[in-house]
Amino acid sequence: MLYHLRGSVTRKTPTYVVVDCGGVGYLVHISLTTFGELPDSGPVELLLHPVYREDAQLLYGFVTELERDVFVLLNSVSGVGASTARVILSTLRPDEALSVIANGDSGSLQRIKGIGAKTAQRIVVDLRDKAVKLGASSGSPSGSHSARHEAIEALLVLGFARPAVEKVLSALAAEDADASVEDLIKRALARL
Predict the structure, then answer these.
(1) Which helix (H) or strand (E) holds 12?
(2) Do both 160 and 175 map to the same domain?
C-alpha cells in the first residue's frame, strides 16, 4: 500500500498535480483544499490513498491526515466514489465536512454538485458516529462559522479562488467575529 510521496512538483492544476520522484512523474488527483496548500513548484510531500479499478490505478493526494481520513470515510459509503469524495472535499474543508455530517445537515451536502437527496442522507446516516469520533462537534455550528461558510460559498459561486477567499474571510473573522453574511461578502469583495 502506498502511504506518501515525496518529490518535486512539476505541474499543478486544480484537479491534479504531477510529482517527480527520482525521475518518475506521478499524477496525483487532488481536491481544491489540497490545491490551495501546495506550492506551484519545488519540494512537496503528499499523503496518498490509491484507488484500484478495472480500468485504472489512481492516486489521490492530501496535505493533511484529516483530509485523507475524511476522503476514506466518504469513499466507504455506498454510491460515493473517489471522484464524488474529492468534489465534497473541494467544496468543504475536511473539518467542515465532518461538522456537516455530525450535525446531520444533508441539505448542505445536497448543494454540492453531484450529490442527491438519497446520497446525502446515506452519507449522514452511515458516517455521523464516525465523524464525531474523528473530532467533529455534534450540535449546531456557531453563527459566525455558518456566516463564514455561507460567505465562502457565495464568493466561490462568483468565481473567486477558494484559497484567496478563505484567507480574506479568516482575516475578516478575526476583525469582527459577529459579522453577518452580507457584511462579510461586501468587505471580502473590497479586498479580493
Answers:
(1) strand 4-12
(2) yes
